[in-house]
Task: inverse folding
């Protein structure tokens, strides 16, 4: 005879004498907490999150800031501080760093045997992926806030610029910058997790992520206007997700349409950049997240069998 017993709502339950685990939300929460603790207990993760944006923002401002005035004036039609022009690139770079570490964390779990322990538990398979993704999103939100604050500090020291000139679109634009950083990170986090699930090797996952990360940054509008790049680089920039992520954040900071790789006039002002950028990044993210989820289910099935 079939028997069903529940100990407490949201806690471990038994059906026909078989443990079936927490609710889906409970499994997501447990997975989220585990990944947050893992990140916070790793001093190198915290150090990287603090130092990488600072180093890139200061170095690139000093190297390119003195020679890009004419290029920015020609591209944007007005004088713009290179700190404001560069900050969106650092936001996207930081999102890529955090998203790339997502796959590295997964392969660490696979090599340590932690993933097998999770898979033989009654944890919902979708909660494993969602809880981990939420931990990555929280990390990217915190890092984005740190970079925006750091960028304004550098701008204030350099020119004494006000917050209003730093983010022309105000508080709604500031919220939009966080949203775009999260949307952008989805595709690269999914890519790094695919690399982890395919290679199941720490070094190979790092190589996959690094092979894309820095070439894509330089083959985009991250550091210089598209118009000053060689023609072949302009062609590649058109199909580069980094271009859309950087330009969307930059449009919200400058309060104007800055997307030049495609001509969109269906909306108005800043939306001519933000809408197509979010659409392109969202579609790419959904496609790669779907592939990563399928691979995770296959891995879980093979490990459990």
Result:
């Amino acid at each position: 005879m079939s028997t069903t017993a529940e100990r407490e709502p949201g806690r471990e339950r038994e059906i026909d004498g078989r443990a079936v685990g927490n609710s889906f939300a409970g499994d997501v929460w447990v997975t989220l907490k585990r990944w947050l603790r893992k990140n916070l207990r790793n001093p190198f993760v915290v150090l990287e999150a603090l130092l990488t944006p600072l180093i890139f923002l200061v170095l690139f401002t000093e190297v390119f800031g003195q020679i890009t005035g004419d290029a920015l004036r020609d591209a944007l039609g007005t004088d713009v501080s290179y700190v404001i022009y560069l900050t969106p690139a650092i936001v996207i770079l930081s999102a890529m760093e955090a998203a790339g570490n997502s796959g590295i964390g997964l392969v660490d779990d696979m090599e340590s045997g932690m993933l097998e322990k999770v898979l033989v538990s009654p944890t919902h398979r979708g909660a494993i992926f969602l809880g981990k993704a939420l931990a990555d999103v929280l990390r990217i939100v915190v890092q984005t806030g740190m970079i925006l604050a750091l960028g304004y500090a550098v701008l204030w020291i350099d020119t004494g610029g006000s917050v209003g000139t730093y983010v022309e679109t105000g508080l709604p634009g500031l919220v939009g910058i966080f949203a775009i950083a999260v949307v952008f990170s989805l595709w690269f986090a999914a890519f790094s997790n695919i690399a982890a699930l395919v290679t199941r090797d720490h070094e190979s996952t790092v190589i996959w992520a690094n092979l894309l990360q820095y070439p894509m940054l330089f083959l985009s509008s991250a550091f210089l206007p598209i118009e000053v790049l060689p023609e072949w680089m302009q062609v590649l920039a058109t199909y580069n997700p980094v271009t859309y992520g950087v330009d969307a954040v930059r449009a919200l900071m400058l309060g104007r349409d800055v997307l030049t790789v495609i001509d969109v006039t269906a909306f108005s002002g800043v939306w001519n950049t933000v809408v197509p950028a979010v659409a392109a990044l969202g579609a790419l993210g959904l496609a790669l997240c779907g592939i990563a989820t399928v691979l995770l289910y296959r891995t879980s099935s093979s490990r459990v069998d």
User: Anything to note?
Assistant: Residues 1-18 have pLDDT under 50 and may be disordered. The chain is about 75% helix and 5% strand. The beta strands are 4-6, 13-15, 18-21.
